Amino acid sequence: MTARRIEKPWGYELVWAETDRMVGKILHIDEGHRLSLQFHRIKDEALLVQSGVLELVLEDDAGELQTTVMKPGDSVRIAPGRRHRMRAVETCDVVEVSTPELDDVVRLSDDYGRTGDA
User: Fold this and answer.
1) Quick one: pLDDT at residue 84?
2) What is the mean predicted confidence (pLDDT) over 80-103?
3) Which residue from 57, 66, 94, 99 has the highest number of Cβ atoms inside 10 Å of its Cβ?
4) What structural domains and CATH numbers belong to the chain?
5) What string of H, E and C letters represents the secondary structure of 53-84?
6) What pLDDT was estimated at residue 117?
């Protein structure tokens, strides 16, 4: 498979693996930009910060949004239904491995005017 690049208003995604059971991609997030505050109904994902500094807002077990600063080598799982948002404190590359439901995005807030379900 040849990796495919998908341009985003915050940077780009580089999909480097895709099967009927999983997807691997790199999220390149430009400094100061952030992704939607969102959740997934089905998609289950894990993140690994490869470079840069990432601020992750993630819903905890009590339903509260908690902010964590992540650096290279830090990882986290984002279970379905958990609200989350990423912001690049420094330009960063984040490895994401997930189940294959790439269109399963429910946007709650977005800096770029994107709304609702992807």
Assistant:
1) 98
2) 97
3) 94
4) 4-117 (2.60.120.10)
5) CEEEEEECCCCCEEEEEECCCCEEEECCCCCE
6) 72
